[in-house]
Specification:
CATH superfamily: HIT-like
Shape: globular
Number of domains: 1
Helix content: 25-40%
CATH topology: HIT family, subunit A
Oligomer: single chain
Strand content: 15-25%
Distance between the termini: 34 Å
Bound molecules: adenosine monophosphate, zinc ion
Order of helices and strands: HEEEHHEE
């Protein structure tokens, strides 16, 4: 069923507490934790507790939670002292998505204006 935990999903396992993560924020429907392989001094992932394959699928099924995800990304940026940062939603393997549980990357702490990616 849409939104149900998937046994083969690493982010569902983090939500369940079955594998560890460095959690920085929790909200009613989201979790924010540090990326295992940071691409910038601040690299945080914000995910919904519920399993949806990508951000658009989350927004279509649960628009309020998609909004909560963005608000939490902004709050995490504030906590990190960032005024300038980038939010990225990779969608599909061809765009670099490797974990098929909706997530937004929060990247900041270094110069990010040199190109689109
Ligand atoms: P994406 O390529 O957009 O699907 O992003 C997935 C991100 O999840 C990558 O940046 C990985 O480094 C990160 N990642 C994968 N497994 C873990 C984990 N167990 N804890 C934290 N970050 C992870
Ligand atoms: Zn999942």
């Amino acid at each position: 069923m849409a939104g149900e935990p998937q046994s083969d999903c690493v982010f569902c396992k983090i939500v369940a507490g079955d594998i560890p993560a460095t959690v920085v924020r929790k909200s009613e429907h989201t979790l924010a934790f540090r990326d295992l392989h940071p691409q910038a001094p601040t690299h945080i992932l914000v995910i919904p507790h519920a399993h949806y394959p990508n951000a658009a699928a989350l927004a279509a099924a649960e628009p309020a939670i998609a909004g909560e995800l963005l608000a939490e990304a902004g709050a995490a940026a504030r906590e990190e002292g960032l005024t300038d940062y980038r939010l990225i939603f990779n969608t599909g393997a061809g765009a670099g998505q490797t974990v098929f549980h909706a997530h937004v990357h929060l990247l900041g702490g270094k110069t990010l204006h040199e190109g689109l990616v």
